[in-house]
Give the backbone structure.
Amino acid sequence: MELETIIGLEIHAQIATNSKMFCSCSANAYNAEPNENTCPVCMGFPGQLPVINAEAVRKGAIAAMALQCTIPEYSKFDRKNYFYPDSPKGYQISQFDKPLSEHGKITIRVNGEDKVIGITRLHLEDDAGKLTHVDRGTLCDFNRAGVALMEIVSDPDMRSAAEAAAYAKEIQVIVRYVGASDADMEKGMMRFDASVSLRPKGDTKLYSRAEIKNLNSFKTLEAAIEYEVGRQRKLWEEGKPQDKDITVGWKEEKQATYFMREKEGADDYRYFPEPDLPPLGLSEAILNELRSSLPELPAVRRGRYIRDFALSEADVELLTEDKDLAAYFENTLKVATHDPKKVASFITTVILRFLKEDAKDIDECPVSPEHLGELLNAVESGKISNNMAKGEIFEEMYLKGKSPLEIIKEKGLEQVSDTGEIEKIANEVLAAHSDQVAEYKSGKIKVFGFLVGQVMARMKGRANPGVVNDVVKKLLG
């Protein structure tokens, strides 16, 4: 029997706000002292009233727009009841039947093909705390409890782990582009729950699924889905497919899922409208204001780069995955307008290598787009060679923040294109290597490269390679 994999994702992303979803505590849970950012509201003390964070609503709405979701005039908050040590209130404030937005979609690209993935909804809620299991028990840190979250629920449209990872990466890029979330998985700001089931090829109904909880990297997401598909496929082959929805966890050290519990349903959570919060209304004026603030989205920018700059798909993917990197590329083009491909190549091969070695982001790059443009213009005009630009000159720019023209002048690095000077050195080289000249004239063409190299070495790399080639060819007859 041929089986088809069905995958849906729930993505939880912390919204980039200074304060928590329903109180004024700092939302900075990373590197804070345990339980430093807490108050009676986010700790669920009796009689404390929540207040909706307006900035979280705005950023949630703009993320929903970027995901092409429909935003109704009104939504509401609900209590989702469950008892767990990291939930101090004994419930989560979430959205059930009237979410902030519904019915969106994005396009992903896998193996050179585009595919549209539907988005069921994007709704708002508050986060739980963090548990750390130790030998003598479990430690609770409630700094994260109450932090504003958006939960993005996909339709069950993905058919492979690769598609799921591509979808998750695209969501991360989009929410970062619009400033809705930093989505830094190393800081716990973005997490995935993956629902996986199988069905006979051609069948349209959905069978019992396993929901894999709290995956925190793209690599782990792919590995967990692959394992779960294999586990369920074996059950089908044995004639006893999974017959209940279950929740499973992921053991990184074993690279395997493990059973946690039967999957809860809406009835288990006993949803009811949050009595302490009014319905949430977004006027058309507010929505229009948010729409007008949307930046150029990643998919649109990719298409423009391919259309206008004729860049490769690989370079486009790399340049557009970070909004700041794309801005750096475009700002460089304002100075070095002659060849976008050369600009893209220098950024992806040289600048990103230096930044990676120093564990820096592009916004920390000591070489400004203006200086990079000047450097590339110096190469284009023949003032310096490409090798000099990528080597000694760029390294000096990176380490000391100097302009390329300043470095070229200080170190006397301007490329020599004077044929008279080059011809003088070339004659000296040919005279000193008469054996190689004889070999060349007898048909051993490869010797030509050696002779050119000797000229370049004597001129300490400052000679224009094209002029050197022409001069040596002429002198060799």
User: Anything to note?
Assistant: The chain has three domains: 3-290, 296-411, 419-476. The chain has a mean pLDDT of 93. The first helix runs from residue 54 to 66.
